[in-house]
Structures are given as C-alpha cells and as structure tokens.
Amino acid sequence: MLVTGGHSVQFYEDDAFQLEGLTRFIGAAIAAGDSALVVASKAHRDGLSERLRNSGLDLTIAAQQGRFVAADATETLATFMENDYPDASLFDKVVGGVVAQLADVNGKTQRVAIFGEMVAILWAEGKQQAALELERLWNRLAEKREFQLHCAYPLSLFSQAHDAAALEKICSEHSHVTPAERYSTLTTDEASQGAIAVLQQKAQALETAREQLRRNQEQLHNAFIASQRLAAIVESSDDAIASKDLNGTVTSWNKGAEKMFGYKAEEIIGQPVTLIIPPELHKDEEMILDKIRRGEKIAHFETVRLTKDGERIDVSLTVSPVKDGSGTVVGAAKIVRNITENKKIEHALLTTEKLAATGRLAATVAHEINNPLEAVTNLVYLAKTDLADSSKAVAYLSLASRELERVAHITRQTLGFYRETLSPVRFSITQAIDDLLPLYERRFESRNVKVIKQYRGKMEITALVGEVRQALSNLITNAIDAMPNGGSLVIRVSRAHEWNKSAMAGVRITIMDTGSGIAP
Asked: What angle do CA 30, 33, 38 make, to 5 degrees?
C-alpha cells in the first residue's frame, strides 16, 4: 500500500542537481510553517543548510521551534538494523518516534516533509533486499501517520543490464518517480516524446547487446570446453608435443615429451630447444626456424634427437607455425614421434632383402658357372681320349681354356657387384649396367628375352655403387620373371632433374619389359 501523503523517489547523476531538488522540497515545507526531517550524509546535510541559508531560510530557528530534525543516515540505520536487515519494531520506535514528534509541535498538528537516503546506503552496500524492506517499512509507517516522503538514489547504482528488474521493484514502492536530470528537465510533450524514442532505441540496443553478449559467452564457454579437451589430448598423447618461440626457446612441454626425452617441463621450459639436438644437427634447427618465420609447415621430417641421459633416438618431426590474433607468426608447435623401433625394423627388412638378392644372384652365378664348367669337363675328357692326335687335344684344351676364362670373368663381375664402399663415389652408370647384364646372359637366351639399351650419352653419378647395382639387379630379375615366354627388356638412361627443383641435375634410369605386369 502506498502512503496517503505521497512517497516519491528521485534518481540523479550529479549531487548538485539532487541538492537543488532537496533544497526546494525542504525549503518549501519550512517556509510554509511545516515540519521537516532530513536523514542524509553529512555532505548533503551541510549542502542543504548552506543553500537554504543563502536563500534566507535559517534551519537553526526551525530546529529550535521543534520543526526541523537532521540526522546522519548511517548512524540512524544502525539503531534499527539487526543482522544487516531492518527490524520493524525498532524502526517504528526510532523513526516513527521522530515523525510523531515533528507532527505534533506544541499541541499543534503539523504536516511533515521527510527526505531520506538510508535506502541508497543499503543499496550501495549490496543489501538490496534490506533496502526494499526499508521502503516497505516507510509505507507501513505512512498508514499510521501522514507525511510526504522523498527518497533519492544515485543512478550509478544501476549501471548494469541486470539492474533493470531491481529498478522496477524500487519504482513500484513509490507513488511518484522522478528520472535523472537529463530527462526531468524536459518541458514540452515533444521533447518528452523524443526522449522516450531515444530511450526505446537505447533499450533495444541494450537488448541486442545483451543477446550478443549471451552468444559470446556461450561461444567462449564452448571454446573453453574445446580447449580443455585439446589440453587433455595433448597431455595424454604418447607423442611429444611442445612449443617454442621464434628464438628457439621452449615455451610448453607435455607429458609425452617428458617421457620421451627425460626432461620435466619445469626443467626445460625457458631453455633453448638445442638442448635435445645433437651438435652436428644445430644447423637443421636454424633451417626449421627460418621456414616457420615464413609461415611454412614442416611435415614428417626424420632426424635424430638427444635424451637427457645422452641417448640418440630416431624421430619424425611435424612443426607448424603459431600465429597471434593478427596473423603474425609468434612461435612454433612441434609434434615429435619416436621412430627408433621403426628404423630397426626397416634396417632388418633391408638386410633381409639384401640376403634375398644375394640368394637370387648366387643361383644365377651358379647356373652361369655350371655351364662352362660342364664344357670344360667334357673337353678334358675328349682331350684325354684323343691324346694320340695332338692337334685335336690342343683344340680341346684351347676351348677349355676359353671356358675357364669365362668362369673367371663371371667371378670377377660377382666380386665387383658385392665390393661395397663406405661412402658414395663417382662412377659411370652406363658402365655399371653393361657390367651387370652379362650375369644374366644365359637366362636372357633361355627365356628368349631381347635386351634393348638406349643410352643417351655416357653419364656419371655419385652414389653407393653396390646399392645401385643391387637395385638394378632386382629390377632386371623381376623383368625376366615377368616374361616366361620371351619379350623385350628396354634399359634407358637419360639426363633429368629433380621433380620440384629444376636446377638440381640428375640421371633417370628407366627399365621396361613386355611381360605380364602387375595387377591393378
């Protein structure tokens, strides 16, 4: 229930404006011979007294007549608050007693004007429910005694969007609401309607902003949940995942990195990443950082790294640039996979392939040597049979000598095939092929395979001779096996360059056959 005499509220942005309104309200009551009660801060009480005195009204005389009482808002609150909440009986006793005194001066009934900012103090302290209860206590007191009550709130107490509901509750407890000075000074309907339209636009803008804020908060929440999952994945990964700045200083280090390299995160974060790089490979780190600075990614780069105890491990690196909000590269994220075991398996497979190639070559060599040896045996037998005819014996032994030279030649080629060097050497690739082909001459003849050589000049390469010969031997053997009913084997050697680097000169070797081929 609202008070009979009226319970108004004033919202203000500036103290000077609020004091002007308070001066008119209290000054009019005192000048009319009515009583007045002011419960405010010392600054507001002093400002009121000074303004009234300048206008010719002395509150000292009104106070002496029992028509004016000024009290401190904070001290008055303390007289009826229990556990930070206003007590109804104490309020009636303290405040109601003062109002009763002002309403009856020397046996004469007086009208009473009251200004209070105790509710504003409670609101500023965050005690909103206590402030609303105090407003209701004033209304209940007005049911017993008639007075005109004027409250005031700084508008700054309601600066947030969620304060709108609280502001509505305050307004509902008053019979009259005066907006802040920028709106209360409007004097025409046109100006008021214009202000209302502006307020409506601002309200709509605020509502839109609030909805956008809600969506942004939802997106941030979802991003926080992606980031949490990503962090969990990074921490649980068996791969080493780390980051560094553009100077090569480690900035993050996951559990996988701790397990792989032996360094705890607190040991290596802030240290140069070269701590885990062998000295002879430091130049690779410079190359990696140069690519990252250009925004390039490095994928599956196989190299060697050092653990804390000095063990060398084979690793595969994938390094990606990290960019800030403006797109500037500020560092690098690195995923390291330990491929030491894979390298061991690969080496074992390579050794097995070499042994298989050796077996195939041994069978070919045995076949090639067996034929001339059989011929030698037969010729020696014939020579023994025809010893009486020396000319025949000499002819037989001459043929046997040539077959033995053939065996020696095959033996020398076989030794050359397996004579390996520890480092690459410069050699003629066409000569290497020419030295290899006679080993398969009998198989070419037995399978009716025609060999066509297409050499576009004599070309040299730098490589491991044995490795190249073994690769060529495997290709030739496969081609022979693919042509059981005969065909053509074309061996082409031509100049070429690397696929993506036209300036890198090289040699292309093409081996083609007309055999069965490989199923799709």
From this structure: 35
